[in-house]
């Protein structure tokens, strides 16, 4: 019974994080964002990019980058599933949970890493006006964002990189 409760709490934590991903994307993409084939293809490219980073991290046996890539995959994949307006969101979340556990990754550590990645992602938004000669500057919901020509959010000077090492140490992963 105790293990079932732990698993339920972990899956609930992941669902709450997925909701945060959607909220973040709502700010990033604006109120009038339309899910088009181009938008879906862009999200698929982000999922592929993060999957390639995971493959490289596994190949290099870089545990910090593995957890970073797993957290990033959760973030981009969560929004991809929402974009598809899929009824299978909870099933996909369960599959991600099962894959993580089956591959002997610490799910509680991953949940904390996802929280840290989301904290970091919010720092891509600025409350003060950004300027850039290289990127498009957009104001949404009172926050300033930088976009490249492909629609990818770029990191302003106020961006704070996720700090996963202390989380991995806390969970005894490294």
UniProtKB/TrEMBL annotation:
Judging by the UniProt lineage, the source's domain of life is Bacteria
Q: Which InterPro entries match?
A: NTP_PyroPHydrolase-like_dom_sf (IPR023292), PRib-ATP_PPHydrolase-like (IPR021130)
Under the heading Pfam families, the entry gives: PRA-PH
Name of the protein described by the UniProt record: Uncharacterized protein
């Amino acid at each position: 019974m105790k293990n079932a409760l732990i698993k339920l709490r972990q899956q609930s934590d992941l669902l709450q994080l997925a909701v945060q991903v959607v909220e973040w994307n709502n700010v990033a993409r604006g109120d009038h964002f339309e899910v088009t084939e181009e938008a879906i293809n862009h999200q698929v490219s982000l999922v592929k990019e993060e999957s390639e980073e995971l493959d490289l991290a596994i190949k290099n046996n870089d545990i910090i980058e593995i957890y970073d890539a797993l957290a990033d995959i959760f973030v981009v994949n969560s929004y991809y599933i929402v974009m598809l307006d899929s009824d299978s969101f909870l099933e996909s979340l369960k599959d991600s949970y099962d894959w993580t556990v089956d591959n002997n990754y610490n799910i509680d550590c991953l949940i904390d890493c996802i929280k840290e990645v989301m904290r970091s992602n919010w720092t891509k938004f600025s409350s003060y006006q950004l300027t850039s000669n290289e990127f498009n500057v957009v104001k949404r919901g009172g926050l300033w964002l930088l976009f490249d020509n492909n629609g990818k959010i770029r990191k302003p000077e106020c961006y704070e990189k996720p700090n996963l090492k202390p989380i991995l140490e806390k969970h005894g992963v490294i």
